[in-house]
Amino acid sequence: TPRQVAFDVDSAATFSPDGKRACFRRGIIETSADSLVVIDIESGKERPLVRGEKPEAFTGSPTWSPDGRTIAAGIQSAAGGFKSWLVAIDAETGAASRIGNRTWLVLGGARWTPDGRALLVSALDMAAGGAYQLHRVAYPGGETVRLTNDLDGYTNVDVPADGASVAAIRRVNVDNLWVARPG
After folding, report:
1. Contact 111, 117 (CB under 8 A)
2. pLDDT tens for residues 57-71?
3. 158-175 pLDDT, tens per residue?
């Protein structure tokens, strides 16, 4: 029988490697802030991990590292021009540090590689043709390599446990021209 574990969840949940905890994003309406929350699956006890304050907010869904020590998340800010970047957050203390210096217009989501040495990121960069592309971001250094380079968009990236492949939803726009005679 299913049971509700958390209420007011604003992103997909990511699970710790042992499956005992989950982390998700929750907006705080009263203060227009954002937070990442860790919940114990068995007891339902929640613990705010880190809070995002205006003008910054979390974007996409968090992702738990394979070793269980780090949660990666996207941050977005409109200050000085809209941009997004990746942060690594200590799963126990909530201490956050930026992963590299790369920014994107919008960061759609990220997933760890099974070895924990990189994240695969879906991100929108207008300089790259205006479509979500896949990037590999080394961890902890942040060196970034773009994996796709076309006019299609790639979102909802995921990586299987063996790391041998990558799955993503590919979005293709097809425009058509129709001609008809009046009457």
Report:
1. no
2. 999 999 999 999 999
3. 999 999 999 999 998 888
